[in-house]
């Protein structure tokens, strides 16, 4: 077993860095030098691109040079990582030394949260705030869309700005939110849940986070470069037609794909190899199961996305013709590559949400998870089937009509493992003693919201009905119920649940309930009418719609403002409690049996003084004979004593 | 404490007691709602019954809704019951220790599997029998209408950002409006000149992507006269939202009159068009973006 039993498993022993403090500071890398170097890298790449490709015609209609843009972005990213100190370790290794890297600490200064940290708890917090930032930026863009749709003709944004906002919103949410649970909660909690002092590859962990930052800024930069007209789906030849904003789309999406690969590889390696003694697969927490399933799905699907984006980049910058006709390419290639990643991707969003829900539910139902194996089978089943359904996005495309019954079947089969998750949830609350704290309210809302998303998913999978609803607001409402209604509710519930562990504070129940009820009501009031809107014939991504649909659209827009206010309320109260009032929490405020709650608050720098020995499942609520989940101070003789 | 005295008895007896209440409430609510969905709401569901494919979509939507209602109620009624009955009574005790139930799980697997397979079978039947249900079937359709002899051919040409229509049976003329005869089998041949669009004739129940250099065939049969709207349903650039127009289904004689007069009127223009073809490929070598036949 690859478990280091020694006391100081902190990554990166402080090496033999000589010189003054200032030199060491720069040698370690930081966000300032990263920004400066990144800007320099951009200008160098841009200049070089113009030198080698400035003379030949740019891609049609763009009036700009994609080669210099892409080279600028590549050099900026590499320089950014050099500035962060990401290459210090490999370079030092090449010279036969050790790179100076920060030690793990009990308490970090604020500045250290902006560094290339290899402490899984720091990375978790970095991810949490970054993901919330990305989410709220995407949310503001959504309010921009709803503002335009107050009127059936265009009135606030021009059609070009409107389509930019739609594309930015979609891409921001679909691309960045893939890590909204694995990033913060996965990195922070998984070592605690499996009884490890760290993640398997701390540097991979750091790189996975720091990829998201340039991805976010490059994606946003599209807004002042004419945006991209293609939406997050980036269908060719439209995506070949666009200006450099499209390069920003493909480049930032690639960076996020790298981030996903790094994070998921690390997650798989950690969960397989770093489990404490006695942590059998049957005793693994359901969140850990969710993470390893999601991570495997990512590893298998994300490379296809990178491939597709590479092809798109070549078509745009190097004048190849793989994604459009004329010289032998086909737009169907992109549609297939994209959705072969894109459909597993929606489960990359949904699965962690379900894992989190199933993780938190038993704590507040005071019962074990009902049918644990079924729950795991449900997640694995969803993940596996997700690779066999991608053409259901293309029922109207004219591609392979004879395959439609097959894809209809495989898509509808997904209802079976998804149904398992309902069976598990409903079984878990049966004869429980439900405690309606804020996290529990969010988890119950997940089941309510996802029911709409799941049921309407069956409508979408049925080809004749899909002929009606494909590409309409009906589909749009469907996936907002499955992603926002499921994943984001689980995330907010998890924030309320885990703040004691993450920050040592317990968020106010009263404020949390105000946030929950406003968010729940306004969310449903925003998205339920959109099913009707789409059903009555409003296509997605339009700025003009039938005048008869105005009342419904206005209702939705006003509800969306309410939803925005509810989330703003969360931001204000969260930051207020985090920074100003800091309501102190007890070590295990929810009476959880989970290993992550047994280490105390704040979590010690190495998580566990000794590697614990796991004695039972984390969910033995209501079992009168249940001992503690783990022996945290094991002697040699206690290893194996559980059998 | 109250709960404890109430809940004495074997687990099976308790399950029967609560379960029978839940099932009774669920059954009554589902039955009432389903009857309302089928008889009151169903006949008014979009997209109406202007064509066979629209009527088919309406019927399928109705069937799926009737099947969804009991599922929704199952979760809602169960959830509400559990929230009311099995809450913490302030004593902070744990719930009933139970890690699964073989019978319940087996029943659940069986019911969901049967439901899903039934739906897939139903969907396949409704797709294959009505000749593709109005969805684009690509260049060589495999599900065709029984009678193809009196079929009206309409070519839909999408480009940024408008639809035009060509009529091979009327001299290959091209029109900007879409007029169709009632009680007629129609074959739409959908293609694009630039990016991917989607021809969505809402009330006709027809949807087919317009792909550049690909012909996408969809069938339907008109059965009522009236107006319909055509919208682009695949993001195609800045003016995607404004890419729509209107058409109408008229009597067969009115259609014939319209078509022949358009043919005469358009004859000088038709001569300038590329020869009618299933797809058109842009010719980059000619200034002004001419098209030749693919």
Output the keywords:
heterodimer; A: 643 residues; mainly alpha; Cytochrome C Oxidase, Chain A; 62% helix; globular; B: 294 residues; alpha+beta; Immunoglobulin-like; 39% helix; elongated
Summarize the structure.
Chain A is 62% helix and 1% strand.
Q: If you had to describe this structure to a student in words, what would you say it looks like?
A:
The radius of gyration of chain A is 25 Å and the shape is globular. Chain A has 20 helices and two strands. With 643 residues, chain A is mainly α. The N terminus of chain A is likely disordered. Chain A has a single domain, classed as Cytochrome C Oxidase, Chain A, CATH 1.20.210.10. In chain A, 62% of the residues lie in helices and 1% in strands. In chain A, α5 runs antiparallel to α20 and α12 runs antiparallel to α13. Chain B has two domains: 111 residues, no CATH class; 142 residues, Immunoglobulin-like (Sandwich), CATH 2.60.40.420. Chain B has five helices and twelve strands. Chain B has a five-stranded mixed beta sheet with strand order 3-2-1-5-8. Chain B has a five-stranded mixed beta sheet with strand order 4-10-9-6-7, covered by helices on one side. In chain B, α2 runs antiparallel to α3. The longest helix of chain B is centred in the first third of the chain and has 34 residues. The N terminus of chain B is likely disordered.
Work out the helix count of chain A: 20
| Sheet having the most strands of chain B | 5 strands, mixed
Mean pLDDT of chain B: 91
Q: Judging from the principal axes of the Cα atoms, what is the shape of chain B?
A: elongated
Helix content of chain B: 25-40%
Q: What proportion strand of chain A?
A: under 5%
Supply the CATH superfamily name of the largest domain in chain B. Answer: Cupredoxins -  blue copper proteins
Give the ordered list of helices and strands of chain A. HHHHHHHHHHHHHHHHHHHHEE
What structural class do you assign from the helix and strand content of chain B?
alpha+beta
Compute the number of structural domains of chain A: 1
**In terms of per-residue confidence, which ranges of chain B show pLDDT below 50 for 5 or more consecutive residues?**
1-5
Indicate the multimeric state.
heterodimer
Helix residue percentage of chain A: 55-70%
Average pLDDT for all residues of chain A: 90
Spatial strand order of the main sheet of chain B: 3-2-1-5-8
Q: Helical segment tally of chain B?
A: 5
Give the termini distance of chain A in whole angstroms.
19 Å
N-C termini distance of chain B:
80 Å
CATH topology of the largest domain in chain B: Immunoglobulin-like
């Amino acid at each position: 077993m690859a478990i280091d039993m020694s006391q100081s498993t902190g990554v990166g022993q402080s090496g033999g860095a000589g010189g003054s403090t200032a030199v060491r500071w720069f040698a370690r890398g930081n966000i300032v030098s990263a920004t400066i170097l990144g800007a320099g890298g951009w200008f160098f790449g841009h200049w070089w691109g113009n030198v080698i490709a400035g003379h030949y015609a740019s891609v049609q209609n763009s009036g700009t040079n994609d080669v210099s843009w892409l080279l600028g972005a590549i050099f900026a990213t590499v320089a950014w990582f050099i500035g962060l100190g990401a290459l210090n370790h490999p370079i030092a290794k090449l010279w036969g030394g050790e790179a100076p890297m920060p030690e793990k600490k009990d308490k970090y200064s604020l500045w250290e949260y902006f560094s290339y940290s290899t402490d899984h708890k720091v990375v978790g917090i970095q991810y949490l705030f970054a993901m919330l930032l990305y989410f709220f930026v995407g949310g503001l863009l959504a309010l921009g869309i709803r503002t335009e749709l107050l009127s059936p003709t265009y009135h606030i944004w021009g059609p070009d700005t409107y389509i930019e906002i739609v594309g930015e919103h979609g891409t921001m949410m679909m691309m960045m939110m893939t890590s909204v649970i694995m990033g913060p909660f996965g990195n922070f909690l998984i070592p605690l849940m499996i009884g490890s002092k760290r993640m398997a590859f701390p540097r991979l962990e750091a790189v996975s986070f720091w990829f998201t930052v340039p991805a976010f800024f490059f994606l946003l930069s599209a807004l002042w470069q004419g945006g991209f007209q293609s939406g997050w789906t980036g269908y060719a030849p439209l995506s070949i037609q666009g200006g450099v904003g499209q390069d920003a789309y493909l480049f930032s999406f690639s960076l996020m794909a790298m981030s996903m690969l790094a994070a998921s590889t690390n997650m798989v390696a950690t969960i397989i190899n770093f489990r404490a003694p006695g942590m059998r697969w049957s005793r693994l927490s359901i969140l850990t199961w969710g993470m390893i399933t999601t991570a495997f799905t990512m590893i298998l699907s994300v490379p296809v996305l990178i491939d597709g984006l590479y092809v798109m980049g070549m078509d745009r910058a190097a004048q190849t013709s793989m994604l459009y006709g004329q010289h032998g390419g086909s737009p169907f290639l992109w549609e297939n590559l994209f959705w072969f990643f894109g459909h597993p991707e929606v489960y990359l969003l949904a699965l962690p949400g379900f894992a989190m829900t199933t993780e938190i539910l038993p704590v507040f139902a005071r019962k074990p998870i009902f049918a644990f194996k079924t729950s795991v089978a449900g997640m694995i089943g969803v993940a596996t089937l997700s690779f066999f359904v991608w053409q259901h996005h293309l029922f109207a495309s004219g591609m392979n009509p004879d395959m439609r019954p097959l894809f209809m079947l495989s898509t509808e089969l997904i209802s079976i493992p998804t149904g398992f998750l309902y069976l598990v949830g409903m079984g878990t609350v049966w004869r429980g003693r439900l405690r309606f704290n804020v996290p529990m309210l969010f988890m119950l809302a997940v089941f309510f919201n996802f029911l709409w998303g799941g049921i309407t998913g069956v409508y979408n999978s049925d080809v004749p009905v899909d002929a009606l609803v494909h590409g309409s607001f009906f589909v749009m409402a469907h996936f907002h119920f499955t992603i926002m209604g499921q994943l984001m509710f689980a995330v907010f519930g998890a924030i309320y649940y885990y703040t004691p562990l993450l920050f040592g504070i317990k968020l106010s129940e009263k404020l949390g309930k105000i946030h929950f009820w406003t968010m729940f009501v306004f969310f449903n009031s925003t998205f339920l009418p959109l099913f009707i809107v789409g059903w009555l014939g409003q296509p997605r991504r339009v700025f003009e719609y039938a005048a008869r649909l105005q009342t419904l659209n206005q209702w939705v827009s006003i509800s969306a403002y309410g939803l925005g206010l509810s989330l703003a309320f969360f931001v204000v109260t969260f930051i207020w409690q985090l920074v100003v009032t800091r309501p102190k929490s007890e070590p295990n405020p929810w009476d959880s049996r989970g290993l992550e709650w047994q280490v105390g608050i704040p979590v010690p720098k190495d998580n566990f003084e000794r590697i614990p020995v796991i004695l039972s499942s984390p969910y033995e609520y209501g079992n009168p004979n249940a001992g503690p989940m783990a022996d945290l101070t094991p002697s040699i003789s206690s290893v194996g004593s559980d059998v | 404490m109250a709960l404890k005295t109430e809940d004495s008895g074997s687990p099976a007896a308790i399950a029967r007691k609560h379960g029978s209440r839940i099932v009774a409430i669920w059954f009554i609510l589902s039955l009432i709602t389903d009857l309302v969905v089928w008889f009151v709401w169903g006949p008014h569901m979009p997209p109406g019954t202007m064509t066979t494919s629209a009527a088919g979509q309406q019927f399928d939507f109705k069937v799926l809704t009737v099947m969804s209602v009991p599922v929704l109620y199952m979760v809602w009624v169960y959830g509400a019951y559990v929230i009311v009955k099995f809450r913490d009574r302030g004593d902070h005790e744990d719930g009933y220790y139970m890690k699964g139930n073989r019978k319940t799980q087996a029943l659940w697997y069986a019911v969901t599997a049967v439901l899903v397979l039934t739906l897939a079978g139903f969907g396949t039947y409704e797709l294959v029998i009505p000749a593709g249900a109005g969805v684009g079937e690509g260049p060589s359709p495999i599900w065709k209408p029984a009678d193809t002899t009196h079929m009206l051919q309409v070519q839909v040409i999408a480009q940024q950002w408008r639809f035009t229509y060509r009529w091979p049976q009327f001299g290959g003329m091209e029109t900007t409006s879409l007029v169709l005869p009632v009680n007629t089998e129609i074959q739409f041949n959908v293609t694009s000149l630039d990016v991917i669009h989607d021809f969505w004739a809402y009330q006709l129940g027809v949807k087919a992507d317009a792909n550049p250099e690909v012909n996408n065939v969809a069938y339907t049969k008109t059965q009522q006269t009236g107006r319909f709207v055509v919208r682009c349903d695949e993001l195609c650039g800045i003016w995607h939202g404004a890419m729509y127009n209107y058409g109408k289904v008229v009597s067969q004689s009115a259609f014939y009159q319209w078509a022949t007069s358009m043919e005469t009127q358009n004859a000088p223009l038709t001569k300038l068009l590329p020869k009618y073809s299933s797809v058109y490929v842009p010719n980059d070598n000619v200034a002004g973006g001419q098209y030749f036949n693919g």
